[in-house]
Amino acid sequence: MTADPASQDLVIRIHDHPGQVEAGLWNALLEAQAVPTPFMRHEYLLALHESGSAAPDAGWALQLLCLHRAGVLQAACPLYVKSHSYGEYVFDWAWADAYQRHGLRYYPKLLCAVPFTPVPGSRLLARDGASRRQLLRAMRQFCEGGKLSSAHLLFMDDDDRQAAQAEGWMLRQTVQFHWLNRPGGYGGFDDFLAGLQRDKRKKIAQERRRVAEAGISFEVRAGTQIDSELWDFFYRCYTLTYALHHSTPYLSRDFFARMQQHMARHWVMFVAHREGQRVGCSLLAVDPERRHAYGRYWGAIEYVPCLHFEACYYQPLAWCIANAYQRFEGGAQGEHKMARGLLPVLTHSAHWLDHPGFADAVARHLEREGAGVEAYVDELRERNPFRAAPAA
């Protein structure tokens, strides 16, 4: 236990296991933030850690940074000491390579993010702006004391971005594609399609017809309706998707067992059937309070043309419309999502590098990169798939 020199009444505690922080206190602090996604809940971070999916053996050494004042949890954030850059979706491989070519060590580094989860939201959980900035200062102190090369804050909300900018961190932008419900909601999926340009409507109709002609039907399971047998089938599909790309799944079966036990209400599954047999499924995370949905994972045990689009976009969008959800986030990257009615949005990260020379070089690079990203988004917005742009 140490006192922060910038604030003598603020106490810093660092924990290497989520169980060392009371779940109720963490979640209450999260719910007070601007964008409290389910992926920052104590149960989610605990499941990642205890299932071995994001644990030290996998190169994710957790450090929960907590700030207390007068015995009250004032601010907190999840930190990971990383020995690689996998599972982050904001790519710094070129920075690591540049360090190595100059005989310097980039790893280990410090990361504030949700592992394997490119979902924008609150990362610095704080009761006020001053405490949020104290978290950033404590992260720098952690790096300096542990001789870490850098600190990175990924997929943050606007409050975090303003705090990082005030602390002199370098800002970076990336692009994702999100669907927004219209004010008052759509009358159904056909009503949504009617707002798209003719070529987009025709393409979607063709894709959906191919799936229907293949004899595919869908059932939707939500929350506790997703039983262990169905989670087993999903996990089989999930691992097959990674196998097709010659890679290894990040998340273990035990992780999803913990989701079933502790966060069932945050999951919806779309299961594809043919002749009474399951052939594929997709998994959606949901925030029932904020009415937000997040595309997560999918897979199939056999190839069916256009099944991916049906399972990952059309079924979830129809469900979101029917259940008055306001936002569907399609995940990282994927310009093809625009043809399905998802529009480009900017996401933000912040970075601090200890080495002055590299920090200066990266700052210049990010300035050029940022101008390119903004030009790219402007170009994308000119190709709006809707006949008239929907109100945000």
Structural key phrases:
single chain; 392 residues; alpha+beta; Aminopeptidase; 2 domains; 14-stranded mixed beta sheet; 11 helices; disordered N terminus
Question: What does the model show?
Answer:
The chain is of the alpha+beta class. The protein folds into two domains: 211 residues, Gcn5-related N-acetyltransferase (GNAT) (Aminopeptidase, 3-Layer(aba) Sandwich); 144 residues, Aminopeptidase, CATH 3.40.630.30. 37% of the residues lie in helices and 27% in strands. The protein contains eleven helices and 14 strands. Strands 1, 2, 3, 4, 5, 6, 7, 8, 9, 10, 11, 12, 13 and 14 form a 14-stranded mixed sheet that branches. A hairpin with a 2-residue loop joins strand 10 and strand 11. Helix 2 runs antiparallel to helix 9, helix 4 packs across helix 5 and helix 8 runs antiparallel to helix 9. It is globular. It starts with a strand and ends in a 10-residue tail after the last helix. The N terminus is likely disordered.
Output the number of helix runs: 11
Helix proportion: 25-40%
The CATH architecture of the largest domain comes to 3-Layer(aba) Sandwich
Compute the CA-based radius of gyration.
22 Å
CATH class of the largest domain: Alpha Beta
Distance between the termini: 46 Å
What's the total count of β strands? 14
Which oligomeric state applies? single chain
CATH homologous superfamily identity of the largest domain: Gcn5-related N-acetyltransferase (GNAT)
Provide the low-confidence segments as ranges.
1-6
At the third CATH level, what is the topology name of the largest domain?
Aminopeptidase
Give the CA-based shape. globular
Proportion of beta-strand residues: 25-35%
Main beta sheet: 14 strands, mixed
Q: Tell me the structural class.
A: alpha+beta
* N to C succession of SSEs: EEHHEEHEEHEHEHHEHHEEEHEEH
> What do the pLDDT scores average to?
95
Q: What is the domain total for the residues?
A: 2
